[in-house]
Amino acid sequence: MLFVGDDWAEDHHDLVVIDNSQKVLARARVPEGPAGITAFTDVVARAALTTVTSDDDLDDDALEVMVGIELNHGPWVQALVAAGYYVFGVDPLQAKRFRESWSNSKAKSDSGDALGLAELVRSRHRTLTKIGADSEGSAAIRILTREHQRAVWDRTRQTNRLRSTLREYHPAIVAIAAKYDLPLHDKTILGLVTLVPTPAAGARITVRQVLPLLARRHDKDAKAAWIVQALRQRQLPIGPEIAEAYAITVRAATRVIASASSHIAELEEQVNAHFSRHPDAEIYLSQPGIGQVIGARLCGEYGDDSTRFQTAKDRRNFAQTSPLTRQSGKLRIVCARKAGNDWALDAAVRQANAAIMHDKYAYAYYRKQRDRGINHNAALRQLANKLTGILHGCLARHHPYDPAIAWANADLKIAA
After folding, report:
1. CB 247 within 8 Å of CB 173
2. What angle, rounded to 10 degrees, do the helices at 292-302 and 240-276 form?
3. Quick one: pLDDT at residue 54?
4. How does pLDDT run across 178-198, given as a tens digit for each residue?
5. Please, what is the average pLDDT of the chain?
6. Residues 223-260: pLDDT tens digits?
7. How far apart, in whole angstroms, are the C-alpha atoms of residue 256 and residue 230?
8. Domain parsing of the chain, residue ranges
9. Which residues does 84 contact at the CB level (< 8 Å), separation at least 6?
10. CA angle, 347 as apex, 266 and 254 as ends, to 5°?
11. Spatial contact of 307 and 396, defined as CB atoms under 8 Å apart
């Protein structure tokens, strides 16, 4: 059995190969790309030759190679998996802490980091999550859902900037959005900002000008009248040049936000199309709190290799929903887990948040935690942990969600 530490950079990989006795068998730097994979295989082969004592030991099927790398996706990782290596995606924080515990020296080098990864895999591979041989469909879903979520986060940042700017010089727009519970990236609000970019323009607006923005809204005449009245309210005066400068910035922001919304809609359509073709889609969609996007995100992050998560605990640890206990002497603290897949955690918590609004069993479990004095976020995370375990059972048995089975031992008080 050989253990390889792979410290990757943008254009190369530093490799260190060790054996069970911690003896360093090879060190090398290989390039990125197909040539690098070929060189990787050559390095491992040469290291293997130094360990054999007879021709009988040259059996490729008997040689196991475990690779540790601070990466869990991408062509390089998939190529290693396809080549037959056991690949473990190590969390960077976990690798850093192991390196600190393994060596007192604060010296740092790429080769040293690779050696640390090799030793981490050698000593702790039984506790690490192996990167599975996921299908192309699952990998495609992960790529699309991550880009979709990044686009949503980018739009949120732009929207928050727009809100901050509007509050400084044109607070009526923010008040209108709050009145009708509309996000600032809503087409109506963006259209209103474009129509009245300054308070002076808002003071001259008429109901007839506002009505086209409310074409598909219920009771649009009354709403248009209220919006005109809100825009005509007096506010603290600002200079015309300052107002125009603000107007230029918000017009640019609205174009960025509108473009981001279009990008999100396009990605969501592709996410739904790819996810609907996945064989596990029906099981994911049967779970409480899971729709197309959340289901696709979880499917992409967990993958579809059936050997990747042997137990529900493995899946929970991967998603960071399982609590972490720290005990020393009389001190005992239960806290949130920090090492794992942040994308899966975000999706799992969003599932829990939706489940308490639409599933009576999930809500009862949440209320049970709250009645114990646990705050909202902690109770939501515990519910996410429970739902992750339920999902694992359904996927392992290829059976859709059944509340009678899922909550059989939960001792819940279900509201009538």
Report:
1. no
2. 70
3. 47
4. 999 999 999 999 999 999 999
5. 88
6. 999 999 999 988 888 888 999 999 999 999 999 999 99
7. 26
8. 2-133, 139-273, 281-406
9. 65
10. 40
11. no
Instruction: Select the CATH number that applies to the domain covering 2-133 from these four: 3.30.420.40, 3.40.50.150, 3.30.420.10, 2.60.40.3090.
Output: 3.30.420.40
Q: Please name the residues in contact with 387: beta carbons below 8 A apart, sequence gap of 6 or more.
A: 287, 288, 289, 348, 351, 352, 355, 362
Closest by CA to 8, choosing from 131, 114, 133, 98, is: 114
Q: What's residue 293's pLDDT?
A: 96
Q: Per-residue pLDDT tens for 38-79?
A: 999 999 999 988 876 545 455 555 678 999 998 777 788 888
Nearest to 86 by CA among 70, 59, 63, 67: 67
Residue 18's Cβ-count burial label (10 Å; 0-12, 13-18, 19+) is buried
The pTM is what? 0.79
- Short-list 110, 64, 107, 101, CA closest to 84: 64
pLDDT given for residue 144 in this prediction: 95
Sheet architecture: strand order including 86-89: 24-31, 12-18, 2-8, 65-69, 86-89
pLDDT value of position 52: 63
Distances 14 to 31, 112, 137, 307 between C-alpha atoms, Å: 9, 9, 31, 29
Question: HSE of 51 in the Cβ direction (CA atoms, 13 Å)?
Answer: 25
Q: State mean pLDDT over 279-298.
A: 96
Cβ atoms 65, 81 nearer than 8 A? no
Question: CB burial class (10 A; 0-12, 13-18, 19+) of residue 205?
Answer: middle
